[in-house]
Amino acid sequence: MSPRSARLARLSRSVTFSACHRLHSKSLSDEENLQLFGKCNNPNGHGHNYKVVVTVRGEIDPVSGMVMNLTDLKEYMQAAIMEPLDHKNLDKDVPYFSEVVSTTENVAVFIWDSLQKLLPQGILYKVEVHETEQNVVVYKGEEAIVK
């Protein structure tokens, strides 16, 4: 029997959390914020039921048959997503967003960074944040290239 080469797979798990926020940049005037963000700049904020899909990638372990134990991934997602974000006002309850506009793009970055601290190094592949059924952000940890 010949040895089999290692197989790579991607494993995804999703969670849903509810949170409110206000799109508002401290770098802009009130008029500029209203023009840029429209009704999402409402001083009282607005809410979403966000769906987050986390995908990890790695070799399929020949003994367990898994890339990662789903129970472990569930616990990491609970700590990195649900505990800090669920039923929160992102701008007031999450220190990260006191200086960063709480767009879905930045929510994805926050989740990525939080998961990176917990997951085994190099296993996180992508974070998808569904703000609505129509609006989805995918983040894979990329940074902009300085020109």
UniProtKB/TrEMBL annotation:
Write out the transmembrane intervals.
Answer: none
What EC number(s) would the UniProt record show? 4.2.3.12
Identify the InterPro entries for this entry.
Answer: 6-PTP_synth/QueD, 6-PTP_synth/QueD_sf, PTPS_Cys_AS, PTPS_His_AS
A single cellular component GO annotation: mitochondrion
> Which GO terms fall under biological process for this protein?
tetrahydrobiopterin biosynthetic process
Alphabetical list of CDD domains matching this protein: PTPS
Keyword Phosphoprotein included in the entry's annotation: no
Cofactor field: Zn(2+)
> Cross-referenced PROSITE patterns, in alphabetical order?
PTPS_1, PTPS_2
Q: Could you cite one Gene Ontology molecular function of this protein? A: metal ion binding
Gene3D superfamilies with a match to the protein in the record: 6-pyruvoyl tetrahydropterin synthase/QueD
For this UniProt record, the keywords arranged alphabetically read as follows: Lyase, Metal-binding, Tetrahydrobiopterin biosynthesis, Zinc
Instruction: Identify which top EC class this enzyme belongs to.
Output: lyase
Is the keyword Zinc-finger in the record? Answer: no
Which pathway, per its entry? Cofactor biosynthesis; tetrahydrobiopterin biosynthesis; tetrahydrobiopterin from 7,8-dihydroneopterin triphosphate: step 1/3
What job does this protein perform? Involved in the biosynthesis of tetrahydrobiopterin, an essential cofactor of aromatic amino acid hydroxylases. Catalyzes the transformation of 7,8-dihydroneopterin triphosphate into 6-pyruvoyl tetrahydropterin.
| Family indicated by similarity | Belongs to the PTPS family.
Q: Please report the name of this protein according to its UniProt entry.
A: 6-pyruvoyl tetrahydrobiopterin synthase
Q: Which organism is it from?
A: Loxia leucoptera (White-winged crossbill)
